[in-house]
Amino acid sequence: MWLQSYLVQGDARPWWAFFADALFAHHIPKDCKVKDISLRINPFLQHWKPNKRALPPELKAMLSVATKYGLRPEGLAFARTTLRRMPMWDHCLTDPVVIRRLAAKSAVTTCLKKKHGLLTVGDFEAFAARMDSPAHCPALTCACNICEEMITQERCTNPHRCLERAKAIMNALPPKWDPRCEHPEDYEEEQMNEQLTLGIKDGRVFDRTITTHGGVGNIFRIFTDGHPTYNGVLDMRLLCDGSAELTVATDGLCLRNGERSAAAGAGVFVGANDARNKSVRLPNTLLQSNQTGEAVATYLASSDMDP
Prior knowledge:
With 307 residues, the chain is α+β, with helices and mostly antiparallel strands. It has eleven helices and seven strands. It has a three-stranded antiparallel β-sheet.
């Protein structure tokens, strides 16, 4: 419960979590790459990690629980509002070498931090988008309204250089974590339209929504296996071509289910002697269980069937 409460963001966050943030940010190993304490926001959302030995027992135990149960940001897709709330500096889903090279102490990064006040992904996205103005010229001498405003109001000495660096830092994000990319939330609501079932007897729209909404705390999962995850954008769009209705039966089974020697399979049945019928043995890289077999069968039916 302590760990779950700590991950909550916004008005519902408990007061002690802010003290935990301060203690984490203060107690760091000597080789911590994020030198600016104001940029050490959250060790679960960034690459840096606190020095556990210097922490109170309660916080030390909380970090141990997170490690034990494989806590990490993971999911199929996330809402842009959620992605934009994550800290951009030392973002945990970027390549640490790349993001730290781009964020290394210099005149431009100091300007981004101190004068432009950039902190979150949303801050960087909005700032870098200024480059898209038709009036902007990619040069130090640009006299567009945007650059003039940055010079006079934000005291920036080289607006284009700051804009370029902000965009480069944004480009370090994998597509799934980049709010500028197309995401399933762009078309999920349209695909839940009941009009899609017109003319189909007892037809129902299958809920294909995979987007996680809400605060940043909702991006975390436990019991993860530690293996790298796919950080590209999943394409969940339906191909509505007016094809005829097709009824398909699917099933999965597992011999010796629950045992170390379990062996699972999946089957798809369209009709007697139909060439699209298939049965497969699940590879050893997948969990051998009835549930996995059923999921694979459903996947085969939905991805390979052509009415």
